[in-house]
Every structure is written in structure tokens, then in C-alpha cells.
């Protein structure tokens, strides 16, 4: 029996994920009140049940029942009903853009501003995120990317660790990301900002990447950095960590940090890990 509880921030893509589970022939139930989870599990796990794959969508729409969710999860563990939690995350700015684009109301912002509703929801859901088996950050994902990620995690016959790795570029002048686990400062690398032909480009441009990496210092640093990350990731997997955030920072977050973050993300992904790449300060000046 595969019993998956799908939850996360409103607007982070839960509806799309439930469609993917349906396509994989999971029995899907959306917005089940948390108080009914145990009863539903008892039915699914009983002898002779025809259901072998279940996906339950739980979100803040059931807020008046939400305080009962953790008690239901404790009961599932106590009764030895195996389950997994898939948590969908997304940054605040992207969530706000999605709500403005669809013109839908945030479930906790009926009498307040959307950013405040997002903040409240994030606080409520954070304990659930901390115990999730899988965390998928949908900030930079299109629906097809999200579908591909879910298929990678839950495709039958494939083995994956529970670790999702976020590689994040940022600018120190805009502040260090608060959720960072590992922070690397690359402000000592050659800076394309001082070349007028490269100033308005970013680390996504090949000319910028070539400039940053065309020095012995850059090559030595990258070799040592990848060696350290190669050592650390298996340790985090062994520890049982679910989400690792590797942050790469330069001054403004447009050139050097983006270059190194791109290279690191490609390197980690090539070794079979789930990677989410994000450039936080990419568009800031």
C-alpha cells in the first residue's frame, strides 16, 4: 500500500500534483477533513481492499479541522499504518503573482491582504513541513516540470532518497536567505560587473559564465566546492534530512553567484539527486 498525504501552501500546485497522481492510477481524495484520515486509512488497509495506492489532498481550506491533523498522523503511526507526506512549497512573491494572475482569493486572506494570509498559512504549516518525507519547491516550476518531479519521486521501480536539494543564488546586499543550510561566498571570484559588455547580462549568459570560470582561482574553488558537497550530501541523506538549501552569494546576486549555482545544480542533478534551482535576486539591480 502506498499512502501519500499531499499538502503545502495554497497556490503551490497541489491541484496539479493530484492530477499527476490520478494519471498514475492513485485513488485520489482532495480536501479530506483531517479527522477522517484514520477512518479512511482503516478502510484502505483492511484485508481484501482493492485500493493499493492512495493520495490524500489536505490543505488550509479545512482550517477548522486542521488542528486535528497532527493527532490523526500520530494515530496512523501508533496503529502502524505507513504513510508519506509530500509538502509543496513556494516563495511568497511567486504565490502573490499566482493569486493576482488567477484573481482568486487566498483562503486566509478573505478579510486581509494576500501577503498577510500567506504569512499566517506558512506559520501554521511549518510543523508539517518539518516532518514531510518529500519537499518540492514549485517556485520556478511550470506544470510540466512539477509533473516530471512527481513522476521521478513516485514512479514504480525507481529508488530515490527523501532529500530534495535547493540550490539558491543570492546577493549579500539583499540579505542572506534565512532558510540556508550551507552558505558559500563567491565575492572573491572575477566580477563581470566591471565589464560594460557584461554588466547587464547574468550568470545564465554563456559570456558571463566563461568570464567567471576563466581563472585558476575559480577552477580551484569550484573543484573544492564540489568535492565538499559530494562529501556532505550523503551525510545529510544518512541523517534523514528531507530538504537541503545550498546558497551561493555574491554582491548583487546576478553574475558570479548565478554562474556557480547553475554549475553546482547541474553537477548535483547529474548524480541522480532531486534539485530545485532558484535565483533569488536575479532581476534586482
TrEMBL record:
Any one GO MF annotation of this record: ATP binding
RapZ-like N-terminal domain location: 1-153
UniProt cross-references to InterPro entries, sorted A to Z: P-loop_NTPase, RapZ-like, RapZ-like_N, RapZ_C
Positions annotated to bind ATP: 8-15
A Pfam family recorded for this sequence: PapZ_C
Domain RapZ C-terminal positions: 164-282
Residues where GTP binds: 59-62
Keywords: ATP-binding, GTP-binding, Nucleotide-binding
Family annotation (NCBIfam families): PRK05416.1
Protein name: UPF0042 nucleotide-binding protein CLOBAR_00280
